[in-house]
Amino acid sequence: MACVMKIEITDSYEALSKAAAKKAANYINNNPGTLVCFAAGDTPLGTFKELLLMQKEGNVDLSTVWYVGLDEWVGLGIDDKGSCIKVMHDSLYNYIPKERVRMFNGLADDIQKECSEIYEWIIKHGGIGLSLLGIGRNGHIGFNEPGTPDVEGCFTVELDEVTKSVSKKYFGKERAVTTGITIGWRTLLDSQEVILLACGINKAQIVKKAIEEDCTPDVPASMLQKHSTLTVILDKGAASLLDQ
Ligand code: F6R
Fold first, then answer.
1. Which residues of 14-40 are buried (b: 16+ CB within 10 A; e: fewer)?
2. Residue 7, beta-bridge partner list
3. Among 17, 45, 70, which is best to mutate for testing ligand 1, by the most ligand atoms less than 8 A from CB?
4. pLDDT digits (tens, 9 = 90+) for 29-64
5. What pLDDT score was predicted for residue 4?
6. Which band of pLDDT confidence, cut at 50, 70 and 90, is reported for residue 173?
């Protein structure tokens, strides 16, 4: 299917967050009962703040949809600063009925079972409705690191060196993370709608590769070009190297 990529360039992080929240709220309002997958990381934090504000003002009811975690650091749990589950609970899921949310447990004894259960949760809810994703400096989405193969479902991935070195910003210290669990890009591509967010000049080069160059699993975010209705929301910094 041909891609109809929509690129929205905003003036600031605040504007990016508002635009993303508006789009996500619109999806949620029009698609109750569907499954939403939000990335953790720094970029969507402003979007979550806006969504909670919109909910307070009666413009969206976040409890009408279901949620699935995108990824997790293996070995980290909800008490660990920087784990995806902690970030997501602190910034959004503490304000949503517990039974609506299923995130990866990075501390599970059986990580393969955890992968299967998350995939079952996705299937049970009819696949992912909306994916709101960030992009790593190496082009990863979720923990689909460069070169992640085209595999349906969820799996463990050996973390890329770039991801390991960037990870310090979440943990506030060095942590020996080596493995991630993630929903695969193939399954993300099956989402009804995909929104990709990027902010800051340090993402400009990878954003250019992801949306203006050929699709390749070496830049996992570029595989999103294959999605039929991809929306990319950028701030000026992240958009600064685009041709148009
Ligand atoms: C986090 C995730 C990652 C981040 C990406 C960008 O759940 O899936 O792929 O979206 O690393 O992170 P930030 O937003 O911190 O630049």
1. ebbbbbbbbbbbebbeebeebbbbbbb
2. 232
3. 70
4. 999 999 999 999 999 999 999 999 999 999 999 999
5. 74
6. confident
Pocket of ligand 1 (CB under 6 A): 39-43, 70-71, 84, 134-136, 140-142
**What pLDDT shows up at residue 3?**
66
**pLDDT one-digit tens code per residue, 82-126:** 999 999 999 999 999 999 999 999 999 999 999 999 999 999 999
Active site residue 140: yes
Are 83 and 72 contacting, i.e. CB atoms less than 8 angstroms apart? yes
Q: Which atom of ligand 1 is nearest to the CA of 43?
A: 14
What are the chain's domains? 4-235 (3.40.50.1360)
Where would I find the H helices in 36-110?
45-56, 84-91
Ligand 1 centroid – CA 142 distance (Å) = 7
> Does residue 16 contact residue 10 with C-beta atoms inside 8 Å?
yes
Active-site entry in 50, 125, 138, 235: 138
Return the closest-CA partner of residue 131 out of 54, 56, 43, 230: 230
Report the distance separating Cα 70 and Cα 201, nearest Å.
Answer: 24
Q: Give the span between the Cα atoms of 182 and 159, in whole angstroms.
A: 11
Q: 136 C-alpha vs ligand 1 centroid, how far in Å?
A: 6
